[in-house]
Amino acid sequence: NPASYIPVQAVAFALPDGNSSLVSAGQPLPVTTVAPAAMPLAGTATTTGQLGPFVPAAGRPVVLSLSGSWVGTVRVLRSADEGGTRLPLTIAGEPWGEFSANACEVVWEEYEEGARLYLDITLASGSLTYRVAQ
């Protein structure tokens, strides 16, 4: 049955002090803008070499896809000086972002503006299709 009242609903969010605040023109919903995704680095490799750079947008995960019939290794390298120094990714001093088989997974999340990622490919045989994207 129609009612003679309208239920009120409102959106609120937590303030730093723990109190809540209703969303309004004077107190808009706090949001974080995310940089647009970087252009993918993609192709097919049949020889050993380093490919890149891939310049990731800060704050977004980087996904590496490897496919094909290939034998070898792929390492993700990072540079903070426009490619002058390229270091392999590590976590707690252990290798990270190293592959010897097809894969599709998140390998990195960058927060430093201007950092670049490279693929270090060592192929013994076959053809490797790669894609680094966000």
Characterization of the model:
This protein has 134 residues and is mainly beta. 0% of the residues lie in helices and 51% in strands. It contains no helices and eleven strands. Strands 3, 4, 5, 6, 9, 10 and 11 form a seven-stranded antiparallel β-sheet that branches. A hairpin with a 5-residue loop joins β1 and β2. The model has no long low-confidence stretch (mean pLDDT 92).
- The first-to-last residue Cα distance is 51 Å
* Low-confidence regions: none
The rounded Rg comes to 23 Å
Q: Could you say which overall geometry the principal axes of the C-alpha atoms support?
A: elongated
Mean pLDDT: 92
Strand content: over 45%
Listing every helix as H and every strand as E from the N terminus to the C terminus, the arrangement reads EEEEEEEEEEE
Most strands sheet: 7 strands, antiparallel
- Helix count equals 0
Structural class: mainly beta
DSSP, total strands: 11
Which percent range fits the helix content?
A: under 10%
Task: Note the topology.
Blueprint: E1 12-14, E2 20-22, E3 41-45, E4 49-54, E5 61-79, E6 87-88, E7 90-91, E8 94-95, E9 98-99, E10 103-109, E11 116-133
Antiparallel strand pairs: 1-2, 3-11, 4-11, 5-6, 5-9, 5-10, 5-11, 7-8
Short description:
The chain contains no helices and 11 strands. With 134 residues, it is mainly β.
